[in-house]
Amino acid sequence: MLPKVILHTEVSVDGRMDWMSDDSFLYYRMIADWKLDAMLSGSTTMLVAYPEPDTPAAQAAPPPEKAPGLQRLLVVDSRGRLRCWRQMQQSEWWGEVTLLCSHATPPESIEAVKSLGVDVIIAGEEQVDLRAALEEAHARYGIDVVRTDSGGVLHGALLRAGLVDEVSVLLNPCLVGGTSPRSMFVAPDLETKDGIIPLRLLEVKNIEGDFVWLKYAVVKEEAV
Predict the structure, then answer these.
(1) What are residue 184's DSSP bridge partners?
(2) Number of domains comprising the chain
(3) Average pLDDT taken over every residue of the chain
(4) By residue range, what is the domain housing residue 25?
(5) I want to staple 215 with a disulfide (CB 3.0 to 4.6 A). Which of 7, 50, 151, 202 is the partner?
(6) pLDDT > 90: what percent of the chain?
């Protein structure tokens, strides 16, 4: 069984995710009362948050005790890029941490992660099979609702795979411009309009002055 996946993001009026003012307090305050079981992030997002690898002293220290009821952090890292797992374990914003990787992930990387007490879900051959990984997360941990905290590449993979149920967008009152693909939805260009993902508006709010919050349900094929 798949958990419900909510894509939550902040973008400029022209759909960019870069160069905006830092409004993370508002972004996270919006979801403070959501009933979430897990947060899903990619390796690039975690590298931005934790650019330095764990120190040997940090790795030698036991993981901290966490309060019960905190959401689990699921991190997609099929290439074994991350070396900051102890830092992630020490964060107060989530509870246990799980690596989502593939059969192509370097075995030594997986073993290093396991040695720190991080759980591992292996799904997919060359890259992470997100559907299988989320199904396993539901079966293993009882995860029913997942929120994304990531960039456009992971969003694109989830959307193209039909795994997103709701889209929550905080619209930042600015225009950024540019030609690089720093949007909330990064994926190969469509060859036909058949790949367009229809949405149904659930809620719209004007918050904190000029910010607008949009919430949509993803219209699944069987519901069209």
Answers:
(1) none
(2) 2
(3) 94
(4) 1-37+144-224
(5) 202
(6) 82
| Sole residue written with tokens 């539901």 | 138
- 159 and 223 within one domain: yes
The answer, as to whether pTM is greater than 0.90, is yes
Q: Are residues 89 and 133 in the same domain?
A: yes
Q: Tell me the per-residue pLDDT of 1-35, one tens digit each, with 9 for 90 and over.
A: 999 999 999 999 999 999 988 777 898 888 989 99
Question: How far apart are the two ends of the chain, measured CA to CA in Å?
Answer: 22
| Residue that finishes a domain, picked among 141, 159, 181 | 141
Give yes or no: residues 167 and 218 share one domain: yes
Q: Is position 42 within any domain?
A: no
Give me the CATH number covering residue 5: 3.40.430.10
Dihedral class, residue 178 (left if φ above 0, else alpha if ψ from -120 to 50, else beta): left
Query: Is residue 224 a part of any domain in this protein?
Result: yes
Residue-wise pLDDT for 167-224, tens only, equals 999 999 999 999 887 899 999 999 999 889 999 999 999 988 899 999 999 998 764 4
- Could you report the per-residue pLDDT of 153-175, keeping only the tens digit for each? 999 999 999 999 999 999 999 99
